[in-house]
Design goal:
Largest sheet: 2 strands, antiparallel
Helix content: 55-70%
Oligomer: single chain
Mean pLDDT: 71
Distance between the termini: 73 Å
Strand content: under 5%
Number of strands: 2
Order of helices and strands: HHHHHHEEHHHHHHHH
């Protein structure tokens, strides 16, 4: 145990206790002040007029004594006693009621002040995220999704029957959202591929179908030969696929897809390559025969005899010769 950590923890602990007592003292002081002001306010509103009139009589009596209009002690005592007993029961009950009201106001102010200060402290310590990632709990995720469904007037059952990508049942994609685009954003190693694996497992368990485009080959280990079909030029497990049997797409359109435009600076190369591919596709559409054909430069020239000399490279500059190479 480090001494510095012990001292730091002790300082924080006792400083918070001192601040707590100081704040309690301030709160009690202001609560008593409010209750006192309320007491005086209620006193002048609800006390009967007879109380104030009797006080006036006592003052008059004092004035009379000062001017020696009453010189007998018995007369003075009798006058004060009569004034005090006249409404003593009424005054006593009224003072008790005012005290109870003041006590209620004191307690209410104390509770309300504590609640307001607590709410204010919570709002000040709350993290306001303006941009970037935010980590939330699964139940918060579920409540936010249910709010969106309610706004769109979609029944909550759409969430319970949605796609799950976690062992936590609170994390799902609603069924109506499965046909829309979904983006998973995160840095390397944050678990994007793991989420996709959960998707695939869920789809398999529910006997559903999906087309998975695996650019990096990270999901190839999930392939099951009896259940899945693989289309890849670099995977021995791939099924045979002849694109010419699947579509009536023209040779020019297919060549444009294979040789996209790359700007006017290198226009000769991509335009020439596109023309070469288009010419070869017009000549031979069978994938195996086309593959065998492009292995031999002389066979390409022979196959493309009659086409543009700029394409086949006969009696042309070295650039055209480079297209076939």
């Amino acid at each position: 145990m480090k001494i510095s950590n012990y001292i730091r923890g002790q300082e924080v602990f006792f400083s918070r206790i001192v601040l707590l007592f100081i704040n309690i003292k301030r709160l009690l002081f202001f609560s008593l002040l409010v209750s006192l002001i309320s007491y005086l306010f209620l006193f002048f509103i609800y006390m009967p007029e007879s109380f104030f009139s009797s006080q006036k009589d006592i003052l008059n009596l004092i004035n009379r004594i000062s001017f020696k209009e009453i010189d007998s002690l018995r007369q003075i005592t009798s006058a004060i006693f009569n004034l005090s007993l006249e409404n003593i029961g009424l005054y006593s009950n009224q003072f008790k009621s005012l005290f109870i009201y003041s006590l209620i106001i004191f307690s209410a102010f104390l509770v309300m002040s504590s609640m307001i200060f607590s709410w204010r402290g919570k709002s000040l310590t709350k993290k306001n995220i303006k941009r970037g990632a935010k980590l939330i709990k699964s139940r918060v995720f579920k409540s936010e999704v249910l709010k969106i469904l309610k706004q769109k007037k979609i029944p909550s059952e759409d969430f319970s029957g949605g796609l799950s990508f976690s062992e936590d049942k609170n994390i799902k994609i609603p069924s109506s959202f499965l046909t829309r685009h979904t983006s998973i954003i995160g840095q390397t190693g944050t678990g994007k591929s793991t989420v996709v694996r959960h998707f695939i497992d869920y789809i398999r368990k529910n006997n559903q179908k999906a087309i998975v485009v695996d650019i990096n080959g990270e999901l190839s280990a999930l392939f099951k030969e009896k259940e899945d079909k693989v289309l890849s030029l670099f995977d021995d497990r791939s099924s045979s696929w002849d694109f010419s049997c699947e579509t009536d797409i023209s040779s020019s359109a297919f060549a444009s897809f294979l040789c996209p435009e790359q700007g006017q600076a290198n226009a000769f190369w991509w335009k020439g390559a596109r023309s070469l591919v288009e010419s070869l596709l017009d000549k031979e559409k069978d994938p195996q025969k086309l593959y065998d054909l492009i292995q031999d430069k002389e066979r390409i020239k022979e196959c493309l005899s009659g086409y543009s000399r700029a394409i086949i490279g006969e009696n042309s500059d070295s650039q055209a010769e480079g297209l076939i190479a």
